[in-house]
Design a protein that fits this description.
By secondary structure, this protein is an alpha+beta fold. It contains three helices and six strands. The chain has helices at 51-59, 100-107, 114-131, and strands spanning 3-10, 14-17, 23-35, 38-49, 64-78, 81-95. It has a five-stranded mixed barrel with strand order 1-3-4-6-5. A hairpin with a 2-residue loop joins strand 5 (64-78) and strand 6. The chain starts with a strand and ends in a 7-residue tail after the last helix.
């Protein structure tokens, strides 16, 4: 078994529970790597059970994180053809930041009118003048 560490984005989350009540999450994750033609984004199915599944569920969809796990190859036999399907089995997941929606909302700023800025400046200057006396404070 070959261990791997990936920085990936969880695209979607499907939840289920096993007979013992442990949470199982599965879905599609995307990761990027540098190929001949530049940056390439690829997707891989994943599954996680227990603590990593709870971490993924808590982070939500479109979250970014570091996953530790291994690639499981499942063989599907169809008549004369054997198809190998790779699935990332996540044994550990560390969320590394906010979701893409939170980052997009964080970047959006609401502009204030110039009247509001002038009024605020006048209030601050009048408060400072009231606190100043004729005598120096020292």
């Amino acid at each position: 078994m070959i261990e791997t560490n990936l920085t990936l984005t969880i695209e979607n989350i499907n939840e289920t529970h096993d007979r013992e009540g442990s949470l199982i999450c599965h879905g599609v994750a995307s990761f990027s790597y540098r190929g001949k033609d530049g940056m390439v984004v690829d997707e891989i199915p994943y599954r996680a059970k227990g603590t990593p599944a709870v971490d993924i569920k808590g982070s939500g969809e479109n979250c970014q994180g570091i996953a530790n796990g291994y690639i499981d190859l499942q063989i599907n036999e169809q008549e004369n053809y054997k198809e190998k399907v790779a699935t990332l089995v996540i044994r550990g997941f560390i969320p590394t930041g906010k979701t893409l929606q939170e980052l997009a909302y964080f970047g959006a700023t609401q502009e204030k009118s110039s009247d509001f800025a002038q009024e605020l400046e006048e209030n601050i200057s009048s408060d400072n003048n009231e606190n100043l006396g004729d005598e120096p404070p020292f």
